[in-house]
Amino acid sequence: MSLTSKFATALLSSAVIFTLAACEDSEQKAQRKFETAQELIAAGDLKRADVEMRGIFDLTPNFLEARLAYANLRKQMGDSKDAYGQFLLAAEQHPRDFEARMQAAEMAATLVDFDRMHDNLLVAAELQPDNPRVEALELLEELQTARRDRDTPAIESVRDRARALLDDNPELVHGRNVLIDAYAALNDPYATLEVLDEAIERFPEDKRYYTFKLQILAQLDDREGLGEVLKRAADVFPDDRNFKLSLVRWYLGNGDVDGADAYLREDVARHGADTTPRVDYIQFLLQARDADAALSQLDAYLAEDGADELLFQTLRATTLFDSGRRDEGIAALRQTIDGREADDALRDAQVTLARMLEMSGQPEESRSIVETVLEADPQQVEALKLQAAWLVSQDRISDAILSLRTAMDQAPRDPGLNTLMADAHEREGNRDLMRENLQLAVEKSSYGASESLRYAQLLVAEDKYPVARDVLTQALRRAPADLVLLQKLAEVYLGMADWTGAEQVVRAIRGIGTPQAQTMANGLEATMLGRMQRTDESMELLRGMLDDDSTALMAQAAIIRAHLSKGDGAAARKFMDEVLARTPDAAGARFLNAALLSVEGRLEEATAVYRALLDEDPAQEIVWRAYVSALMRAGDQEAADAALEEGIAALPESMNLLWQKAGIEERAGDTEAAIEIYQTLYDRNSASTIVANNLASLITTYRDTPEDLNRAYTIARRLRGTDVPAFQDTYGWIAFRMGNVDEALPYLRDAAAALTGDTMVQEHYARALVGAGREADAIPLFERAIELTPPENAERLQMLEAARSDAEARAAETPN
Fold this sequence. Notes:
Blueprint: H1 3-42, H2 46-59, H3 64-76, H4 80-93, H5 98-110, H6 114-127, H7 132-149, H8 152-168, H9 173-185, H10 189-202, H11 207-219, H12 223-236, H13 241-253, H14 257-270, H15 275-288, H16 291-302, H17 309-322, H18 326-337, H19 344-359, H20 363-376, H21 381-393, H22 397-410, H23 415-427, H24 431-444, H25 449-461, H26 465-478, H27 483-495, H28 499-512, H29 515-531, H30 535-544, H31 552-565, H32 569-582, H33 587-599, H34 603-616, H35 621-633, H36 637-650, H37 655-667, H38 671-684, H39 689-702, H40 706-716, H41 725-737, H42 741-754, H43 759-771, H44 775-788, H45 794-813
Keywords: Repeat, Signal, TPR repeat
Pfam families: TPR_16 (PF13432)
Organism: Mangrovicoccus algicola
C-alpha cells in the first residue's frame, strides 16, 4: 500500500470515528432531553415539556419512545390533531412495532377515522393477536358492521364479548366504549346508563361519559337525573364552560332563575379574580334578567380593586349597544378608548367598536378603524377577520384568503378563521376546500355548536345524512340542551326516515321543558307523524296545539295544509271558518283565511282581507308579498305594481319586496331595471346565492361587454359544482360566453334535462352544442325552445328560428 493509500485509510478511519461519536452524542443529547421532558410532565409543566420534546426530533427523528410520549403529551394538551399526526408518524417510522401501530389505531378510533384504524389494527393483530387491546378494536369493527346491517343478534354477541373482555381487563377504554355503544345500538337506555355509571366510576375525568349520559337522560325526559349529572360534571370539571352553561340552562328550564344566579355567583367567588366567570355571569343576567341588571353588576365589577377596567367598560358599552341603546353604547366605547395608550387590549376594544359601527350602518368609519389597527399590528386576528369578511363580500377572494392565512399564522386553532376561509372558498366555487375548512372548524372547536351546525347543513345539502347525524351527535354531547342542534338532528333523522331516532330527539327536546322547546317538539312530532302517514295521530296532535297561543297559528296552518294535501278543500274551509268564529279579530287567523281564499280562487275577497291587515299595520312584509301576488293572480298588474311601490315605501329595507319587484320587471321585459334591483340586493347581501345567480344570469344574457362578462363570472364562481338546475344553467352559460365550451356543456346538459319547460335553458344548451360543433344535436333543442316561446314574442321566435336554420345548414355540410 502506498503512503497515499495509508494516509487515505487513516483519514477514512478518523471520519468514521468522528461520525460515530457525533451520532452517539446526538443520541445522548436526545435521551437527556427526553428524561428532562418526562420530569417536566411529572411536575405538570406541560409547556416546557413540549419544548423539550420537539427538540428531540431534530437530533434523532426516529426515537420511538419519545415520539409516542410526545403524541400522548399533545393529546393531554388538547391538540388531538397534532397528537394523531405524531401517532401516525410513529407507525410509519416503525411499521413492525406493536405499540406504534396499536396507539395509532386507538387514536384513529377515538377520532372516528375507521379506515386508518383498520389499517393499523391489521398489523397490530398480526404482531400480537391475543392482546386485549387488539380484541377491543376488533369488537368495535364488528359492532360497526352489525349496526350497519341492523343485525341484532350480532350486536348482542359483541355486547356479551365486550362485557367478558372488561371483566378481565377493566382498564380497556375502547372495550368499555364498545360495551356502551352496543347497549345504545340495542335501544336499551337504562342498561346504557348502568354501564355509563360504571365507566364514570372507573374513569371519573373522562368527559365523554358524562356527556353521553346527559344525552340519554334528555331522551328519557329525566330532568332530575339531568340536574344531578350536570352538577357532578360541573364539580369535576370546574373550568369546563359547556357543563357550567348547560347546568345554568337546566336551572332556567326548571324555572329556577335564582338557583342559576346563586350557582354562577358561587362560580365567580370560587375563581377569585378571574374575569371569565364574571363575564359568564353578565351574559346570564342579560339572558335571564335584563340589561339594567347586567349594567348594575358591571358597575359593581368596575368598582372592585384591580378590576380590568378596559374589559368591563367594553362589556358595558356592548351591553348598551345590544339593548337598543346603540348611540349610547358607541359613545361610551369611544370615551373608553380615547386617550388610552395603544396596546393589544386597546386594539381589541377598537375592533369591537368597528363591529358596532358596521352593524350601525357606518361601514366607512368601521373600516378606517380596522385599517388603523392593522397598521399598528398587521397580525391582529380579530381585525383580520373583519377585513377578510369585507373582502369576501366584495368578491376579492384572493385578498381575503391572504388576510385569513396571516391570521391563521397567529391563531392556528381559531375555528372562526376556518369558517371564514370556507366562506371564501364557497364564493370562488371550490366546494372541496369549503368542505375541508368547515370540517376543520368543527375539529378545532371540539364540535362547537355553530361550527357543527354549519358543517351539518352542508352535509345534508350533499345528502350525507349519516355523517351529518354523527357530527350533530358529537356536538350534542358537549351541549345536550342546545335546541338548534337538537332540531337539526331531528330533521336529519326525518330525512333518513329513521323514526326511532327522530322520536328520541323529540323526547329530548320535550325534556328541556321550556315553552320554546315544547313548541319545537310539537312541530317536529307533527311533521314526523305526517311523514309516517299517521294522519289521524298528526291531526290529533295539531288540534291539541290549538289551545296554546304559542303554537296555535302554526297548528292552524298545518291542519289547513293537511286537508288541502288530501284534496279536501271543503274540510279546510270548514276548519278555517271554525277558527274565525272563535277568534274573528286575530291577525294570524285572518291572514290564513286570505291565503285559503286565494287557493279557492276567491281573489277579490283575499285582497280585501290583505288590504285591511295592511291598513292596520303596514310593517307586515309577508302580507305585502301575499297582497301583491294575489293582485297579480287576479290580473290587475297596475294595482299590483302600485301595491308593491307602497310596500317598499313602508319597508325600504325589505329584501323580499325588492326581490318581488325585480321579478316583475324581468317578466315585463325591463331587464335593465331588474339588473339594477338585483345589483342593489347584491350590494346589501352578496352572500345570497340566489341573488348572485339571478344577477349573473341577467348580465350574461342581456349584456355583451367583456367587463360585464367578467363581472358576471366573478359573481357566479360560487355556482361551480352545483347540482341545482337553475344554477347549472347560469354557470354553464357564463362559462360558454367566456369561451370555456367543454366546461359549459355538462352544466347546460343537466340544466336542460331538468328544466324542460324553460325556453331560455333549452336555447342555452343548443347554442353551446353549436359552439362545440354538434349542430345536429342542437336542432331538437332549438325546436323545443321555439315551442315554449309565446306566439306574441315574435322577435324571439324569429331569432330562434334563424338559429335553428343555421344549425340545420351547418349540420347538412358536416360529413357523417
